[in-house]
Specification:
It is a single chain. By secondary structure, the chain is an alpha+beta fold. 28% of the residues lie in helices and 35% in strands. It has five helices and six strands. The strands form two sheets. It has a four-stranded antiparallel beta sheet with strand order 2-5-1-6. Strands 3-4 form a two-stranded antiparallel ribbon. The chain is flat, with a radius of gyration of 17 Å.
């Protein structure tokens, strides 16, 4: 089974801190990220940049605009292959967003979503 995991953070809390302090916290992610990636179950791991656009249908047209500003932002997404939800949670729990202690102050958290394809089991990502 495949699982999409989405990592969130509170941008307002992180933006209040000096860059040096954020860099120090981020430097603690490396060892956890190494353990996460060497699990052999991570199919895709990507950080998400600022500058999101929203697409929606309105008046028979596709409209593209900026999303509404929210304190909570998506910081990372990853796809893992796992035997089931418990195994997916085990692998996701290796990710820095829930391993780095300082992340708690910045609202770091993960969601784990089982995914499927409309055509059946996903063979590739």
């Amino acid at each position: 089974m495949k699982f999409l995991c989405v990592g969130y953070y509170n941008a307002e809390k992180m933006d209040r801190k000096p860059k040096e302090e954020i860099d120090e916290v981020m430097s603690k992610c490396g060892p956890h990220l190494d353990a996460f990636l060497t699990s052999g179950q991570v199919m895709l791991d990507a950080g998400v940049e600022k500058g999101v656009k929203q697409l929606r249908r309105s008046g028979g047209q596709v409209v593209v605009d900026d999303t509404h500003e929210r304190a909570e932002k998506i910081g990372s997404v990853f796809i893992i292959e796992a035997k089931g939800l418990e195994d997916a949670i085990r692998v996701a729990s290796l990710h820095p967003s829930v391993q780095v202690e300082e992340g708690e102050e910045f609202g770091w958290r993960l969601e784990v979503h089982p995914v499927h394809s409309y055509k059946g089991e996903m063979d590739e990502c």
